[in-house]
Amino acid sequence: MTTRDDLALANRLADAAGEAIRPFFRTRYDMEIKADKSPVTEADRAAEAAIRAILERERPDDGIIGEEYGSVRTDAERVWILDPIDGTRSFIAGRPIFGTLIALTQSGWPTIGIIDQPIARERWAGMSGQSTTFNGKPVRTRACRGLEGAGIATTSPHLFADGDVPHYMALVAAVSGGAPRQGPVYGGDCYNYGLLASGFLDIVIESGLQSYDFAALVPVVDGAGGVMCDWNGDPLTSKSEGHVLALGDPARLEDVLEAIHGAGDGHHHDHG
């Protein structure tokens, strides 16, 4: 059972990560490029180490999956999934739109999710069966009457695999309605999902995400009235391939899937 105690702990973990990250922001620090070509900084490592120290002390039986320090006890019923800085490129560029992601999963399903922006001190917290909060106050996604003019965001089109680009561009075309100026908001990583939960964006689309990139987002988006799924409309699990869609208004899901897949590759519904 996920309880309020777990949520209180998740908030303390986010506090500890923020304390570790803030001294590094817009300063000179050590950085290296990992095998997958993504950057990692002292701040990423300090934040994850701070979180893991608390978990090892207070939840020694729970599993942990972290981006920087690997996995322990992953076969446990309860597993914490951590991304100390989601949006390291934004962090390095001095843009305060990165976030710390903390999720608690039970039997593989995310039951608690925190998106924390430690510079602006903004925090979205989601828990199964509860309304998502932003700095302690409930938030809701907004209604979206149609795809045209919808607010859409993605971190970067350069992160899409080649085969995914046409599907992404088809969705952008449906949203912009022939007016490219109405195109996407770029950058933002996890921050976009918080903005969607608060009703400032309608659609976030990404591919190539790992479980630590999306586990925390699911309770936040769900608890605000939105929906998250893969590009086929299926729920996200630890087995998902990292094609992620978030919609503020679940009523637009069919429209979005149709735009992504077009008519003819088996994903649209034949009304004939």
From TrEMBL:
InterPro entries: Inositol_monoP_superfamily, Inositol_monophosphatase-like. Its cofactor is Mg(2+). Pfam families: Inositol_P. The keyword Cell membrane does not apply. The keyword Ubl conjugation does not apply. Keywords: Hydrolase, Magnesium, Metal-binding. PANTHER family: 3'(2'),5'-BISPHOSPHATE NUCLEOTIDASE, PHOSPHATASE. Belongs to the inositol monophosphatase superfamily. This is Inositol monophosphatase family protein. The lineage of its organism: Bacteria, Pseudomonadati, Pseudomonadota, Alphaproteobacteria, Sphingomonadales.
